Amino acid sequence: MIGTVHRPASAAEVAKAAGGAERIVPRGGGTKPALCAAQGADVLDLSALNGITEYLPSEYTVTALAGTPLADVEARLAAEGQYLPFDPLLVDAGSTVGGAVAAGANGPGRLRYGGLRDFLLAVAFVDGRGEIIRGGAKVVKNAAGFDLPKLMVGSLGRLGVLTECTFKVFPHPESCATLRVAGLAFDEALAAAGRVGGGAVELECLDLVHGAAGWGLEIRIGGRSHALEARLNRAADLLDSGASTLVGDADTRHWRARRELHWAAPDASVFKLPVTPATAGVLEQVLAELEAARAARIYSAGIQQAFLAWPAERSADLPALDRALTESKLTALALRAPAATATKPILGYRSGGELLRRVEQALDPAGRFGRL
Amino acid sequence: MAPVDAASFHDALIQRLGSERVLTGAAPMAAYESDALTAFRARPRAVVLVESAEEVVDVVRLCAAAEVPFLARGSGTSLSGGSLPVDDGVVIAMNRLNRILEVDPVRRIAVVEPGVVNLAVSDAAAPYGLYYSPDPSSQSVCTIGGNLAFNSGGAHCLKYGMTSNHVLGLEVVLPDGEVVELGGDSLEGVGPDLVGLFVGSEGLFGIATKITLRLLPRPETFFTLLAAYDSLAAAGEAVAAVVASGLLPGAMEIMDNLAIEAAEAAVGAGYPLDAEGLLIVELEGEKQQVAAESELLLEVVRQSKPYLEHIASDADDRMRIWKGRKSAFSAVGRLSPDYIVQDGVVPRSRLGEALTRIQRLGERHGIRVANVFHAGDGNLHPLILFDGRVEGDLERAEELAGEILRLCIDLGGSITGEHGVGMEKRQYLGEMFDDADLDAMRRIRTAIDPGELANRGKMFPDAEAPALLSHGPHPLEVAGVISRE
Known about the structure:
The structure holds 2 protein chains of 2 kinds.
Chain A: E1 5-6, H1 11-20, E2 24-27, E3 42-45, E4 52-56, E5 61-65, H2 70-78, E6 82-83, H3 97-103, H4 110-113, H5 116-119, E7 120-126, E8 132-136, H6 148-152, E9 161-168, E10 170-171, E11 175-184, H7 186-197, E12 205-211, E13 214-223, H8 225-236, E14 244-247, H9 248-259, E15 269-274, H10 280-289, E16 296-300, E17 305-310, H11 318-327, E18 331-336, E19 346-348, H12 353-363
Parallel strand pairs in A: 1-3, 2-3
Antiparallel strand pairs in A: 4-5, 5-9, 6-10, 7-8, 7-9, 11-13, 11-14, 12-13, 12-16, 15-17, 15-18, 16-17, 18-19
Chain B: H1 6-17, E1 22-23, H2 26-29, E2 40-41, E3 46-49, H3 53-66, E4 70-73, E5 90-93, E6 100-104, E7 109-112, H4 118-125, E8 130-131, H5 144-150, E9 167-173, E10 179-183, H6 194-198, E11 207-214, E12 216-217, E13 221-229, H7 232-244, E14 251-256, H8 257-267, E15 277-285, H9 287-303, E16 308-311, H10 315-326, H11 328-332, E17 338-341, H12 351-365, E18 369-374, E19 379-386, H13 393-410, H14 426-432, H15 435-448, E20 468-469, H16 475-478
Parallel strand pairs in B: 3-5, 4-5
Antiparallel strand pairs in B: 1-3, 2-20, 6-7, 7-11, 8-12, 9-10, 9-11, 13-15, 13-16, 14-15, 14-18, 17-19, 18-19
Helix pairs in contact in B: 1-3, 7-9, 8-10, 12-13
């Protein structure tokens, strides 16, 4: 039930396709199907907009066309000892540069230096009138003009079709290792996360993971190799119970699986929810009331975001989840949803409506990209 | 003409705020006629001293109904003329809206009103071992609302970013008086990043009345290294070597000889007076990590052959080093009656080339230029020295400033790293962006503010905002309270 599929090979071709369609949905790697469901609209397949156009390791900047797989970008950066500190999701699954920015979702590693919004320096996009627009600058510091790059983060393809993005990159830590504690009660795990997160040791990741045997606390530390052991010990001293340690490849594989969402059942709906250490308990309450306390979930990046895998057999209850989130002032972004589940991309509480309405009017007056 | 006559508009302001908080007439309004871009001056219709968010909403609604332009003003430290009054408009003075509403060590946030002074946030967070990271040189007087409008930076932006990287949530009054809430308490969001769009919009989208800021744990320790070189180029190469080593310092600053001389004369920071280039590199963080990093840093910097190096021995020594750097701009005032600060950005690897070309441009115009810059992020701050009493000197200085901005664009950089476009650089925005880019920005502006009432005349190249010309240092600068960075 989709319209024409366009596969533009240049920004000009994107502009032509966007300007001619009544309803059009951009699509990168298709790794977050809930965000590129076409439902009667034309599809703009951006996979031909592929390539790293500029990489200057000494400037900490990389520029790539929107359809470029993030795996290619990461591989290129790794050869120079650099990385994308926002820790993009679903890289091995085929997520693209433009898709990651439009979704505005980050992995657990965003804890250390920030998320996409903090690392996106410049964008080119096609607006709803078919104009090619550039915003930002390809340097690490810039305050000229409105911050259109930030506006595109999380815009879900509704304000424009990204064609090129420039990111700030950082040097990768020399080594990383992870401490894990299992079998905690939620409050206990949250308190331990607060102690470690508020301590002097700077962390790459700090996640609370729900499992059959209670909650697990996972702490990743990175930096100069010969200081790592002392720093792990320092963090471990703040824990009440003994921790196991992951190092080397095991550590790398562990966090890779986390951001690839391998922990969620393939048929589950997966949501990202912004939280704080104060509202994580509110989400727990909501899930308990909906009798969904067994849903797989992770409180990630220092308890600033939750990833929730909503079981496929409970898909009919998504409207109830939407209502409960709204009442609790929580918001959820759908990353994955079973094909049969026509869920909205955003559930729960929304803010900024009046400002967003005016911005949509400015960039997409005819509503070609659909309203949020 | 406004549909409401001037007298009834004034009556309405007085009825809402009381006559003692509505300033009119030359003398009471004199302090509000200019900001830290002292070359411009304009007279507003009135200055109103608001004390609550509700009053901001009501004043904005009155302005909207009467089609009177308005702008919010904090401490007036804008270097780009961002808080310069709109001729015949209303200045909404925000300084009394200065309550810190909440500091929460668990969520690591501070919720503040816009008139709160930048440094006051860190002071309030200090008992919890937290601080607010962006540190403009004027941080002891500039307000969070102004920082937000212009996305202010500072010396420590390399690692943790500028103002926009530290604002999580906002309550804003749109230019027609509509109140919206943006973002929240979390570092993460869902949907287009409207907080990100609002920060740095130079007051053109309205006024923030409540701001949620992210706080960071105070670094456990610092390692501050001062290295002196025979040439500016050598200092620049040292920066490139530090970057290539994989280290990520909290700050990397360079000063040239003229700036060193001025800073020494002003505060006696202990800088070597004969250095052509002085590099300050600072590592920050937890003890073990900084200890490991400092070994590598020393090794890298020594390979760049400075003729002198000095490691800050304690917190006082570190403060002295930074005091010299932060006072460099106001100190330059000792060398010259007037100066213009530029704020362009170039790719880090082209710093050397940019400095050489700036030097040559200065020589051609017969104008001295001192250089202080955030080398880590390529943000230049050339200080163009002139004497406003000499016929044609200001015009020559402005011409040179313009050529420096074009040079930054030419090298693939930006016309502003942290001061904003404001009044000062409007004519250059169109050289950095294409017509389609500017047109999109204009469409967003007019969709949000069809009457272009909020800070009219700023940022856009063709914006109308007649202003009188004047010059001389800012009164707060004379008093030694603020400095330009």
